[in-house]
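Study the following:
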Amino acid sequence: MTSGPSAAALMAEAGVTEAIVRLLPSVDDATLRASLLGTLTLLCEVEPARAAARAAGAAAVLSRALEQAADNEAQLLASNALAALAHGDPAVLLEAGGAPLLLQLFLAAAASLSPSMRSLADAAAPVLLAQQQQQPAPARSSAPILEQQLLQAQQQLQAQHLETSQPAPLRGPQPSHDLD
C-alpha cells in the first residue's frame, strides 16, 4: 500500500468538490442527489476538499437542500453533508442560514434516531422554527446566547421525549373483587 494523497484529496485537487456544489441545485433525480450529497459528505472529511466546498458556497447550497428535502432520508443526507462541511465550526452554518439552519439540522438528526423521536421532531419543528424566526437575528458577538438557546431547545426536546416515552408505572397485585 502506498502512502500518497487520499482519493478525497485527489478529487478535491481535480475540482470534483466544486463541481458537485455547482451541480447539486440543478439535480431533480432523488437517487443522483443522494449520491452527490453522500460523496460531498465524504469529501468534506478532508481539509482541502472542505475548504474548496466552503469557497464554492456549499453551505448555502446544502442549506437549500435541507429546506427542500422531500423526506427524512433526504433531510438526513443534507444534514450530514452540512455537519461534515462545518467540521465542528457552527459559524460556517450560522453565516449560511443562521440559527434556523442549525435548528433544522438538529431536528433532522433527532428524527433519524427512532420513530418516537421522529414524531417528536416532526411535531416540534414548526413550533421551534416559528419561535426562532420571531426572534431578532443575533449579533455576531452573541454566539454564547445562541448556544444557550440551542441547548435549551435540545433540553426541551429531551424532556418532551422522556415525558412521552415513560412506561406506565408498575402496580402491585390489585385486590380482586370476585365473590368466589
Notes: Residues 160 and 166 are 10 Å apart (CA to CA).
